[in-house]
Amino acid sequence: MATQTAPKEYPRFTAGQRFEHIILIVTFSGLALTGLPQTFANQGWAQTLIDLMGGIESIRIVHRILATLLMAECIYHGGIISYKLYVLGRRAIMIPGLRDARDAVHWIGFNLGIAKQHPHLPRFNFGEKFEYLAVVWGTLIMVITGFMLWNPIATVTYLPGEVIPAARAAHGGEALLAVLSIIAWHMYNVHVKRFNRSMFTGKITHEEMVEEHAEELEALERGEKPVDPPAEIIAKRQRRFWPYATVMTIVLVAGLIWFVTFERTAIATIPRQLSQPNTLVDFSAFTGDAERGAALWQTLECKSCHGENAQGQSESMNVVLAGTEISLNTFVDAVRRGPADMHPFSQEQVSDEQLVDLYTWLRSLGGS
Ligand code: HEC
User: What is the pLDDT of residue 5?
Assistant: First the structure.
């Protein structure tokens, strides 16, 4: 730089980076606003918020649109990083190292009055790197658990049913953690301590540089700047980069479309219909066989809860099925829908025909 006096402001973020940040603000706040009331749906304030925002069905849709936008932003961000690392040959400066741990200790020491000098921090200091990585792993957790909640039936065809409530707990827990850390850490660092406008103006003041990025400032004052490789090298790398980036983008966008269109089960609230008769099955086609039913019982999971002989002697539950007085329809319906602590059983797990055999056997046992 040719000027004699030190400039008042230094460039920090490009227009593209600021745009990404705006997308992050919008999606993050929107997801928190439409998501947290779902996590805490059994509480009054959450119900009020849900009603204010137009009801559960509409906030679910908004939540999914914002999630899709955030995932698209992640794909874009991945492309930008790949370009910088590969084509421009930049270093991965957001990955923390030993030096950042030392800076953090030094910084704590300084704040406690033990260290005399504030640490000379680089372009991205330890706190910023930590925050960036928290966004990366937080988003990863939210995308994986979000997929499970969005596509519960697909998920349980490959994984045990317990992963759905586990995914729910992780999704809500990580969301709460993210919101609290944004309020406590990010808000404090960039708004309370000093209102840092660089993410909106793209520029950072000299004073902020001295405190937060002294090392970068010294390098700038020595006239050092990250140099891009010569134009012909860039052109050569670009020729390799673009086909790769195009294929990756197509694959990832296809993955995103697959993610959001896979299954629509979790979109609508389906009322429980336990008492409705199971009209789809024509039971007259089967003649129940008590012996077959008895043999079948020994092979099924039912006995772990309903007891060895359907007498309900399991440790934690005591639901007697022997001599049941419910109708065949109600019986099949209960098995298919899974009342209370019982999970539903599909046709593949136990067929209608087998259920008729079971029912016939259970009825033959008489009352207990
Ligand atoms: C995880 C434990 C568990 C398993 C496994 C299980 N059940 Fe149940 N089942 C229950 C519980 C608990 C209830 C009572 C639910 C309630 O309180 O409404 C129940 C209720 C039922 C009912 C309704 C009874 C009534 O009188 O309304 C039927 C029918 C039934 N189970 C059949 C089966 C069959 C058949 C199987 C195996 C294919 C099975 N259950 C497997 C726990 C289980």
Answer: 63
